[in-house]
Amino acid sequence: MNQQLKTVLLTVLTLSVFVIALVELSGVSKTALINKFGGEEMHQTGARNEAISKLPKTTISFAEQKHSFGTINEGDKVRFAYKFTNTGANPLVISNAVASCGCTVPSFPKEPVPPGGEGEILVEFNSKNKKGHQEKSVMIYSNAQQEAMPIQFDVDVKEN
Question: Considering its fold, how many domains does the chain have in total?
Fold first, then answer.
């Protein structure tokens, strides 16, 4: 597959995830995304993704790609650190982590992870107004062979 086609497909995937996030956030104010990501940072993300797609490829291995929080009370916030190792021969650069829902906030290392190095992606879930069984995902974008890789969790939220 040529590079231009890969770029187009990755752009379509990224836009699709963004649209899903907007649908999830439809009850939130129009400025929620700007407040969450910062106006200037949103413009820089596209340039960062494009620059990272040109980096040499590597591989990433997660200790756990799906986590279960079990049962929690509505309104609780829970966190989990998805630990990973750069198993390739080149530095791993994560360009973005996009949650499937505004109730989920990921954070990831901004610095390159050297070959053999380890890191973690911290995911926080806010269960406010999220009763019942929840299944969420976060797409990790990087210079790994699989440029977009999901990590997932599920949780049962019981009413107080």
Answer: 1
Residue 131's φ and ψ, nearest 5 degrees, are: -75, 150
What distances in angstroms separate CA 111 from CA 63, 92, 144, 157, 158, one per listed residue?
Answer: 20, 9, 15, 35, 38
Per residue in 42-100, pLDDT (tens digit) is: 344 556 666 777 889 999 999 999 999 999 999 999 999 999 999 999 999 999 999 99
- The predicted-structure confidence for 86-138, as pLDDT tens digits, reads as follows 999 999 999 999 999 999 999 999 999 999 999 999 999 999 999 999 999 99
HSE-CB at 119 with a 13 A cutoff on CA atoms is 19
Q: Read off the amino acid at residue 105.
A: V
State the sign of the Cα–Cα–Cα–Cα dihedral 51, 89, 6, 119: negative
d(C-alpha 49, C-alpha 44), whole Å: 9
* Predicted local distance difference test score (pLDDT) of residue 116: 97
Residue range(s) defining the domain that contains residue 25? 3-158
From the number of C-beta atoms within 10 Å of its C-beta (0-12, 13-18, 19+), residue 31 rates as exposed
Token code pair at residue 44: 């820089």
CATH number where 14 lies: 2.60.40.10
Q: How far is CA 157 from CA 3, 39, 93, 125, in A?
A: 43, 33, 34, 11
